[in-house]
Input
Amino acid sequence: MKRVFICIIILLLAAVPVDGFTVELTLHPAKAPEPAQKYQLLPKADEQSDVDAAPLYEKAVQLLPEDFQTDQISQWLKTPPAKLPRQQVQSTLQQFKPILQFLEQAAKCKQCDLPYMDDDDTISQNLRKYRRLVFFLALQMRFQITQGQFDKAIGTAQTGFAMAKHIGEGPTLIHGMIGVGMGSIICRQLEQFVQGPNAPNLYRALRGLPRPFIDLTERSEFEDRDIRESTHLLMNRLDRHVAALQCVEALRLYAAVHDGKFPKELSIITEVPVPSDPVMQKPFVYRCTGSDAVLEAPAPEGATERDAMRYELNLKE
Output
């Protein structure tokens, strides 16, 4: 049990940013797209095939160079879009295009039969390789956003969320935690997406994601109460991230039909239901001061500040 627990902690720390969760967002009003289901963040049922996704993910992993490191990609993912070295990024994406193609194919599979392994170290080593793949999707999505290719970026987000769900629904708790981490990485790119001056509103697309996105409650093999609670918190933290982004989109939608202004309170938004914080089971904390606003959710009792989140919002005409 100790070895499994240590492995989980390592993967958890690798999946979540260590610099806190305060993000500044510059937003533009945006109405809900028509038709209502124009955009979705998981592949539609009629687009999916009965092919098993697992061999496709394995082929993508096999294409990774043995000495490949994600350091450069991680740095680009922290670079403001305006300062992104677009030619270098485009060249990198072109170099790994076969990997991206396998991931796109896998995302459109209904099932993913990942093999069960008894050895915890082998599981963690294999899943770390799978986790590297999501960084290519995050980089491609970020590049598409900087190019104003919002429809393509939504397609890449679909692939990322589908992969996160495939891996997250694997046979062990560690699969689930890696899937949660992958989903969080795609959510980070959606934070860039919603800031695009012409970015479509994703309120309905975000609302269409399942909650919980990945259910870890039935796969905790630990009797220790603290570990079970930490697992549940991790699961809810991804759902909180999605709900907060949905709330941001509700604010953009409100501004689009109310003279480009934020609401004084979340409760006066009547155009769409405003999601609550799934961790605290109550509304997000919201404060508005003219064209600026703050949306935040505190850390639950017994958690660290890493489990708190805060969006500082600025609204542009």
Residues 2-315 form one domain. DSSP finds ten helices and six strands in the chain.
